[in-house]
C-alpha cells in the first residue's frame, strides 16, 4: 500500500489521467466553471494528444447531468475555436434547497501516459446571482492529497479544522459547514469546538453533499459565539466553511476550504537536518 501511495504521488510518474476535482453547487447561485484548456498543456509530456474533459453533476447520490468534451492538442496547443465554460443554473427550487456537487475529470482519450504530474490544474469556480455578491471557490482534489494521506496514515482518521467561527444573532452573522462526500460509501462526521461544544454526528450519503448550520453551537441563552472548530470523520470528506446571513443562508459573504490537520513533525534531529543539507548541496553540484 505504501508503495502504491508513493507511486501515485510521485511527480516523476506519467499518467493517463489527472486526479478528478470537486466543487459544491450551492442553492441560490448560478455556477460557472471555466475549462483550463491552456493550462492543461502545462501537464502534458507529449506535444500531440487528445484530452477528454468530463463534467458530472451529482445530487443525493445520483448523477443528474454529464457532459463530455474532447480537445486536440498539437504542439502543446489546444485546437479550439473558442474557450468554453461549464454552466450550471441555480437549482434551489429543483433540489428544494439542497446542495449538489460538480466533479471534473480529465484523461487522455486512449489513456496514453501523457500527464505529469497528475495533480489537477488549479482553477476556480465562479458563483453569481443578480443582487448578490459573487465569489470564487477553488476546486478540491477528489483524492491524492498528500497532507490528507499522511494524516490518515498517522492518526487513523480524517481531521480538518477552521480557526475562526463567528456567529451572532443580533448582527445576522451565520455560518455553516458544507460537507461533500464524492465516494461510494456513506460516512459519519463529527463537529466539535475548542470549548467543548459538539454537534450531533452527521451522516453524509455516498455521492452527496450536506450543509450543517453552526448556529446550533449557540446555547439558548447566547446571541454570539466566537471560536474554533474541528471536523473528524471515518473517511475523508471535502469540507468548506460558508459565512452567510443567519436569516437567509443563501446570501453568502465568504466561502473557504478548511485546513487539514498536518501530520508532519514539528521538530527533527540535528543529524537529519545535516543530512538534508548535505544532500541539497550535493544535488546542486551534480546539476552544475
Q: How does the helix and strand content classify structurally?
A: mainly beta
Report the strand count. 19
Measured between the Cα atoms of the first and last residue, the distance is 36 Å
- By DSSP (H or I, 4+ residues per run), the number of helices equals 4
Helical amount: 10-25%
Low-confidence stretches: 1-8
Q: Rounded to an integer, what's the Rg over CA atoms?
A: 21 Å
Percent of sequence in beta strands: 35-45%
Description:
Helix content is 14%, strand content 44%. With 288 residues, it is mainly beta. A hairpin with a 2-residue loop joins β3 and β4. The longest helix has 18 residues, at 270-287. It starts with a helix and ends with a helix. The relative contact order is 0.18. The model is unreliable at 1-8 (pLDDT under 50).
Describe, in short, the structure shown:
This protein is mainly beta. It has helices at residues 2-9, 37-40, 146-155, 270-287; strands at residues 17-25, 30-34, 49-59, 62-74, 77-78, 85-88, 100-108, 124-128, 135-138, 140-141, 158-168, 173-181, 187-193, 202-204, 208-213, 224-233, 238-245, 252-257, 259-260.
Topology:
Elements: H1 2-9, E1 17-25, E2 30-34, H2 37-40, E3 49-59, E4 62-74, E5 77-78, E6 85-88, E7 100-108, E8 124-128, E9 135-138, E10 140-141, H3 146-155, E11 158-168, E12 173-181, E13 187-193, E14 202-204, E15 208-213, E16 224-233, E17 238-245, E18 252-257, E19 259-260, H4 270-287
Antiparallel strand pairs: 1-7, 1-10, 2-6, 2-8, 3-4, 3-7, 4-5, 8-9, 11-16, 11-19, 12-15, 12-17, 13-14, 13-16, 17-18
Amino acid at each position: 500500500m505504501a508503495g502504491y501511495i508513493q507511486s501515485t504521488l510521485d511527480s516523476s510518474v506519467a499518467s493517463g489521467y489527472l486526479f478528478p476535482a470537486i466543487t459544491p453547487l450551492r442553492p441560490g447561485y448560478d455556477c460557472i466553471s471555466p475549462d483550463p484548456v491552456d493550462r492543461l498543456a502545462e501537464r502534458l509530456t507529449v506535444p500531440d494528444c487528445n484530452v477528454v474533459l468530463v463534467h458530472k453533476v451529482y445530487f443525493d447520490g445520483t448523477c443528474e447531468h454529464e457532459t463530455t468534451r474532447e480537445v486536440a492538442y498539437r504542439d502543446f496547443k489546444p485546437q479550439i475555436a473558442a474557450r468554453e465554460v461549464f454552466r450550471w443554473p441555480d437549482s434551489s427550487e429543483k433540489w428544494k434547497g439542497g446542495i449538489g456537487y460538480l466533479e471534473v475529470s480529465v484523461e487522455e482519450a486512449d489513456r496514453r501516459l501523457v500527464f505529469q504530474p497528475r495533480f489537477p490544474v488549479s482553477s476556480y469556480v465562479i458563483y453569481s446571482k443578480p443582487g448578490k455578491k459573487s465569489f470564487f471557490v477553488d476546486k478540491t482534489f477528489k483524492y491524492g492529497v498528500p497532507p490528507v494521506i499522511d494524516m490518515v496514515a498517522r492518526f487513523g482518521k480524517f481531521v480538518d479544522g477552521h480557526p475562526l467561527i463567528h456567529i451572532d444573532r443580533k448582527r445576522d452573522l451565520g455560518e455553516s459547514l458544507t460537507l461533500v462526500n464524492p465516494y461510494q460509501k456513506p460516512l459519519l462526521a463529527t463537529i466539535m469546538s475548542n470549548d467543548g461544544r459538539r454537534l450531533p454526528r452527521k451522516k453524509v450519503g455516498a455521492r452527496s453533499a450536506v450543509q450543517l448550520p453552526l448556529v446550533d453551537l449557540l446555547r439558548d441563552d447566547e446571541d454570539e459565539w466566537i471560536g474554533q472548530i474541528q471536523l473528524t470523520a471515518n473517511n475523508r470528506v471535502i469540507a468548506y466553511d460558508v459565512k452567510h446571513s443567519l436569516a437567509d443562508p443563501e446570501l453568502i459573504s465568504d466561502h473557504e476550504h478548511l485546513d487539514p490537520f498536518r501530520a508532519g513533525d514539528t521538530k527533527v534531529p540535528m543529524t537529519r537536518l545535516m543530512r538534508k543539507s548535505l544532500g541539497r548541496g550535493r544535488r546542486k553540484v551534480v546539476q552544475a
